[in-house]
Write a structure and sequence with these properties.
With 242 residues, this protein is α/β, with parallel strands linked by helices. It has 2 domains: 120 residues, Rossmann fold (3-Layer(aba) Sandwich); 113 residues, OB fold (Dihydrolipoamide Acetyltransferase, E2P) (Beta Barrel), CATH 2.40.50.1020. The protein is built from 7 helices and 16 strands. The strands form 4 sheets. A 5-stranded parallel beta sheet has the order 2-1-3-4-5, with helices on both faces. Strands 11-10-9-13-12 form a 5-stranded antiparallel beta sheet. A 3-stranded antiparallel beta sheet has the order 6-7-8, with no helix packed on it.
């Protein structure tokens, strides 16, 4: 059971999301708060898996509040303003939902949270591990098995990841040769900061820090054009606020 709390100074906004949760049997709402500071006690109990947090609130900005938490749970920003998307992304929010929030976008965000929690609790397979063993903003590198050795890759140097049947091709900045590893997107994504690396196509994951420009249906990274899949388009543009 995934335990979540809602923080929003608009009662109607909370009411809508609580109603969404009531339709899902794997979510338990353990608290709703109009003042973020009132939620601290529940969060410190470490009994919360996921926080839904508004940004524009009178007591404290939601971004500042999340940034102030130590050992914070996974979180999703819910706001009427898209201009904060980049800041939310930099904090590694799972998703950035712009009000009014459609049910299908809520489901997509919840599915992402559930996947990350499942991967975090699952036993490791030995193909990849991080500097801290989980996905958070302090993570700096991963090791991946390539042929007969484990290769250390700095996360910031990864430009994009390409799926090739049973292999992943990891394209690294300033190198002429990509790194091939025998693993799945799901396995690798479970070890990467969720909003630095976005799935934009069934065959591509991109590091948003390396995006040079976004065209209608394509992303340009280092002069290479990556397609944006129809099923990923809405989430991608929403997270980037464009």
């Amino acid at each position: 059971m995934m335990k979540c709390i809602f923080i929003d100074d608009e009662p109607l906004a909370i009411e809508i999301l609580v109603d969404y949760c009531s339709k899902l049997d794997f979510i338990e709402v353990v608290g709703t708060y109009s003042n973020p500071l009132d939620a601290i006690t529940e969060i410190r109990k470490k009994s919360v898996d996921l926080i839904f947090c508004d940004i524009e609130m009178p007591q404290i900005n939601g971004i500042d509040f999340i940034n102030s938490l130590d050992n914070r749970p996974l979180f999703i920003f819910t706001t009427a303003y898209s201009q904060y998307a980049v800041e939310g992304f930099n904090l590694n929010a799972i998703d950035y939902l712009v009000k009014p929030i459609p049910y299908h976008r809520f489901i997509r965000a919840i599915a992402r949270a559930q996947e990350l929690i499942s991967n975090k609790n699952a036993p490791t397979t030995g193909n990849v591990f991080s500097s801290h063993g989980d996905t958070n903003e302090s993570q700096k590198f991963v090791f991946v098995k390539s042929e007969y050795e484990s290769v250390k890759i700095n996360l910031d140097s990864i430009e994009y990841i390409q799926g090739l049947k049973d292999y992943l091709k990891i394209h690294v900045q300033d190198t002429n040769k990509a790194i091939l590893t025998l693993m799945s997107f799901r396995e690798l994504m479970g070890k990467l900061p969720p909003n630095q690396f976005l799935r934009v196509h069934k065959s591509y994951v991109v590091n948003v820090n390396h995006i040079k420009k976004v065209q209608r249906n394509r992303i340009v990274i280092n002069d290479f054009r990556i397609p944006i899949g129809e099923s990923h388009k809405e989430a991608f543009f929403s997270i980037l606020g464009i």
